[in-house]
Design brief:
alpha/beta
Length: 390
């Protein structure tokens, strides 16, 4: 860059547009400090979109539900048994602390920042997404408490790891999560000790199993995308081609998570089905090297009804937001449609109530003042109404 040639980048407009944290992160992680590089405002923008907003959404998710449940980490002295998902993310967290410490000790700030990015991706796109129902459920049990403790630990540790990179974002998270709960805590994240890894919590086998489950889920979603079948439509099975018996055993341990991710009823392996009739319905297939996933595209009448149910739930959840209801508000759901939809609503009433926080589901015209919409789903026209329960 040269001021005389007119190709110099003025820093102030970039700082005003994206903030100091985004610019700092770009300078640290785009390339090792000291290496020649071309400055890209677009890449600074991507820091905001692909990293900072993802982290902030995880933080906001925690704060939203912690406020609803009045979760107070300072008053929480219990030690509930962590789930496998909790143990996995805590393993990844402590591995991250170990890696970042080693990188910073070696003045390798670029790899340290990229490792944090990878962890935030795991935290958002697997841990939080796989744990949503644990936070959503109305009852407060030990599993829900374990989820709160685990996510709180991750966010506080991240604020400390991020402090040298993103001082302002790190401080904002620390002030709200730590200082407000612990009056005797250091006044700033920049006055705390840097985290130390607890290597007893690092489980390399569990990490490998979950990362493989994530890869299989990604391939399975890509296979589903080849079809015109909506993601909310449950399918009968996914069939995985693995590279070893060890991978097969690891996937079996994560079976429930993969089933939910792919919205399928069963997980099979290619050596289990041979050339049976089911193999002829595996029309969607995606692979990466020797690892591959196929999905069974044959939809039974029962699966079709369940798919319609999930579409209805999605519409009701969207209507809740549009009507301005709070996340924890209970509602009364109204609907009008044909006999097929009535049968679906009755058969899956418990599921619909649970997913939409509906106290009642009434097959009648919504009264005046109820927020209502008309939808056409699966060839069926229906009127839906949602009313906040007083």
């Amino acid at each position: 860059m040269s001021k005389s040639r007119g190709n110099m980048v003025e820093p102030l407009p970039v700082l005003q547009k994206y903030g100091a944290d985004a610019l700092r992160w770009y300078l640290f992680t785009a390339a090792p400090p000291g290496n020649a590089r071309r400055f890209s405002e677009q890449l600074v923008s991507e820091v905001t979109r692909q990293f900072m907003l993802i982290l902030w959404n995880v933080y906001s998710f925690f704060v939203t539900y912690a406020n609803i449940d009045k979760y107070n980490p300072a008053a929480d002295a219990s030690k509930p048994q962590p789930s496998e998902l909790d143990r996995w993310i805590l393993s990844e967290l402590n591995q991250l602390v170990k890696e970042v410490t080693t990188d910073l000790d070696g003045y390798n700030i670029t790899d340290a920042g990229r490792a944090i990015e990878h962890f935030v991706d795991f935290l958002s796109n697997w841990y939080v997404r796989r744990s949503r129902r644990r936070f959503w459920k109305s009852e407060s049990d030990t599993d829900k408490l374990a989820a709160y403790q685990t996510l709180y630990k991750c966010l506080v540790t991240l604020s400390k790891l991020l402090a040298p990179f993103m001082p302002f974002l790190a401080e904002e998270i620390y002030q709200n999560l730590v200082v407000t709960a612990y009056p005797d805590a250091p006044d700033s994240v920049h006055l705390t000790d840097f985290p130390k890894a607890d290597e007893s919590l690092i489980d390399e086998n569990l990490s490998a199993d979950i990362r493989l489950a994530m890869k299989v889920s990604s391939l399975g979603r890509a296979a589903r995308a080849q079809t015109a079948i909506k993601v909310r439509q449950p399918l009968n099975a996914a069939v995985v081609r693995v590279r070893s018996a060890g991978e097969k055993n690891g996937l079996k341990r994560s079976e429930d998570q993969i089933l939910e991710e792919l919205n399928v009823k069963s997980l099979l392996f290619s050596d289990e089905i041979g050339s049976t009739d089911q193999a002829h319905t595996l029309s969607a297939f995606c692979e990466e090297g020797e690892l591959g996933v196929a999905v069974d595209t044959n939809i039974s009448s029962e699966l079709a009804k369940e798919g319609l149910t999930r579409e209805i739930v999605h519409r009701l959840q969207t209507m809740r937001k549009t009507a301005g209801f709070e996340i924890a508000d209970y509602i009364i759901t109204y609907y009008q449609s044909d006999e097929y939809v009535q049968d679906v609503m009755q058969s899956f009433a418990a599921y619909i109530k649970h997913e939409t926080l509906s106290r009642e589901i009434r097959c009648e015209a919504p009264p005046q003042g109820v927020f209502m919409e008309e939808h056409k789903l699966g060839g069926h026209t229906m009127t839906l109404g949602v009313l906040k329960q007083p």
